[in-house]
Each structure stands twice: as structure tokens, then as C-alpha cells.
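## retry 2 of 3
previous attempt timed out at serialization; input unchanged, resubmitting
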Amino acid sequence: MNTIQDFHNLCTKNNITLSNQQITQFQKYYELLIEWNEKMNLTAITDFHEVCLKHFYDSIALVHYLKFKESNLVLDIGTGAGFPGIPLKILFPNTRFVLADSLNKRLTFLDEVIQDLELEKIELVHGRAEDLGHDSDFREQFDYCVSRAVANLSTLSELCLPFVKVGGQFISYKSEHVKDEINQADHALAVLNGKIDRQEDYTLPDSDFFRSILFIRKENSCPNQYPRKAGKPNKNPL
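## retry succeeded, writing output
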């Protein structure tokens, strides 16, 4: 992929339909990502082809397994440079999104992205998941919580499931080590009242990059003590 049209063709070939406006938004997003990446560390991946494949396409691959509704409220925890939240927002312009991150300068970047791409029904929140998860404005308020964070599944489940309504889903993007992470997360999911509904495996187009998306349903409220204080879910996973 050398041009945004190549990305458009790749999506079309894989049954993802993008409008001209959406293609323009992805182009602007890439340009802003590269511009800001010179001032701060947003991503180690900067090559156009790699960004389109490993960030943009990987983020929106979820559309093959789930289509958000206009009535849904979606949270992206640890959004970083906006993945998967911004690509998903481009794909589902009428769905409400909240993107949360602990680093304010990343949110400054994302604010410019939102303005330049003219995205609506999207909110940025500064804070750690461990703190926001106990805030009544956020706890159990979301239909879906998505995350492409690098933390293990046990840690992510503690950070993400408290935000999800009972009956809603935590959606975790994972790589080739997903089987080990699932086995290690058994206890955490039992404690947090989460259950893996399904696992969708795929490889990124024209590559051997294995990816997996886990759909974890929240069957009952999480005990009030979770998530634990900042740092504990990472240092001592359930």
C-alpha cells in the first residue's frame, strides 16, 4: 500500500465499505499521526503501508464480527494514539465513543484529530482506568469497552470490565499468545463476573500477522473493590 486508494481497495477486497469521506479522514489521520509523532512518542510504526495495515485495518477488523448501533456507548481504554477508537469512530460515525488515556498530551493530539476529521459524538477523558472505574459517571455505563492495550488479559479484564453494563461486552484485541493469556485469566474472569463469549481469529490481509479478538460478556456486576488502586492490576494480576 503506497496510497490511501490502496487502503481503500484493500478494505473493499475484504468486504469493508468506506465512503470517500471516510477515506479522506483516514488520510488526514495518518498525516497528523506522523506530524505529531515527531514531537512525541505515539507509535513506532510510521511507514504508510504498516500504519494502514497494523493500525487502521487491524482496528476496524472488528466490523467483520460486530456492528455498533447508533444507540451504543463505546469506551476505548488506554487509547494511546487513538487505536482502535478513532478508526472505529470513522467507521461508525453515529455511534457515541469515549476515548480515555492517562497521558494528557496524547489527548491533546487526539483533540486535533477529532477537530480536523470533524468527528462528532466523541469525548476525550483524561485519567487512569483504576480511578475512572470507581467514578459513577463511568462505572457500568458502557455497552462495550474496547482495548488494544499491551497488558495481559487478566490485567485488562480488571481495568475494563467495571466500565461495562451487565450484559455488555469487553472486547480485547490480542496476538499470537492469546491461548496462554486466556488460561491465565480464568481466575480474574471468575472474580470479575466476565465470561468469554467467543474468540475470532484472523490474519491481517496479505501478511502472516495473527490477530485475535475476544468478546467477554459481563454476567454480573464486578465486586466493588475492583479495579484495585493504580498499578496493582499490572503488578499483581488476579
